[in-house]
Amino acid sequence: MTKTNDSIASLLGMALFAVSTPALADVKAGVDAWGRGDFQTAINEWRGPADKGDADAQFNLGQAYKLGRGVPQDLALAEKWYKKAADQGHLQASDNYGLVLFQANRRAEALPYLQASSQRGEPRAQYVLGTGHFNGDFVEKDWVKAYALMTRASAQQLPQATANLAQMDRYIPVEDRRRAVELAGKMEQDEKRVRTAQIGGLRTTQSTGEVQTAQLPPSRPAAPAPTPAPTPGPITPGVTYAPTPTPTPAPAAPAATAAPVRAAASGDWRVQLGAFSDEDKAKNLWTSLESRVSALAGMQPYLVKAGGITRLQAGPFATQAQAESMCSSVKASGNDCITKRR
Predict the structure, then answer these.
(1) C-alpha to C-alpha distance for 253 and 137, rounded to whole angstroms
(2) Are 52 and 64 in contact (CB under 8 A)?
(3) If I label 255, which of 45, 263, 280, 323 is the partner at 20 to 30 A Cα–Cα?
(4) Highest-pLDDT range among 14-23, 54-63, 231-240
């Protein structure tokens, strides 16, 4: 039985960063440079705004130090910048800060962040908490809640969560699993309300009204965890295991291995999902479509201002064909969709 901190650490790569005032030009220039692979320029663009208190720039630096791109990899500095941004209400920074604390075995400090992230539907936090509730090692043992949280993480395409549900099936009684599925449905509805309350789930720029985010690529592709050898007894996240059933099995948690991290998307094409005179209606449409159209999961929403109209767009896509394919999925849900080139 071996510790695999890298499995928890790689969960940190699954995060977005936004561009907002007061230093929009510098921060966006850094995002653009990062997208070109010019990491040093990105760091140079973000450093000044981060020092002056720009939460997005602070989060971006945290990601850079976590991944070791443009700067030496340094988890202590990643933690520092995540916390600065999290203290200003940056949700993605709060998500990653909780995971960094957990990775450092500062679980009591991590728990409030993990719980807040889980409540707004963050699958990585749900995965870690689900494992914890199954073992009862840093939160109370609650197999119904554990199964519900792992169900939510699995529904959001965290592959290892799906595998872990199958392992949980060997220990959790059928009636408890039924109750857990009902609880997962309630959790999903609660997550939508929380996201809507937190700026509609979107971070907009004050100067342009457009949501500008990008996804940091991982340092290396994340490989699926190998199937571990049988080992009895409960474990914690980050430990590979496969329990050996007995007539009275000891609780054993799913292996907390990380999901593959997707590289950053890029391209000049977007899909337009609607145009509204009321910006809140655009945000509400995104929340609705994101839950109904699985193909939109992980896509970046954009609020594009044009006079008194707010256009809701998503992307980016490298080709028009990719954008049209997305539109087909959106139209199948009953919502109109057109492709646009920036």
Answers:
(1) 10
(2) no
(3) 263
(4) 54-63
| Prior bond of 243 cis (ω within 30°) | no
Burial class (CB in 10 A: 0-12, 13-18, 19+), 319: exposed
The pLDDT tens digits for 70-120 are 999 999 999 999 999 999 999 999 999 999 999 999 999 999 999 999 999
Same fold yes or no, 5-208 and 269-341: no
DSSP 278-342: SHHHHHHHHHHHHHH-GGGTTPEEEEEEETTEEEEEEEEESSHHHHHHHHHHHHHTT---EEEE-
Q: Which helix (H) or strand (E) holds 29?
A: helix 24-35
Kindly list the domain boundaries of the chain, sorted by start residue: 5-208, 269-341
**What is the C-alpha to C-alpha distance for residues 319 and 323, in angstroms, rounded to an integer?**
7
Fold of 269-341: Alpha-Beta Plaits (3.30.70)
Q: Three-class SS of residue 3? A: strand
For residue 171, the model assigns a pLDDT of: 94
Sheet strand arrangement including 300-306: 300-306, 309-317, 269-276, 338-341
Q: CA–CA distance from 318 to each of 199, 268, 314 (Å)?
A: 29, 6, 13
Instruction: For residue 165, give the nearest of 288, 231, 156, 315 by alpha carbon.
Output: 156
Fold type of domain 5-208: 1.25.40
pLDDT tens digit string along 172-207? 999 999 999 999 999 999 999 998 887 554 443 333
Structure-token pair, residue 98: 């909780």
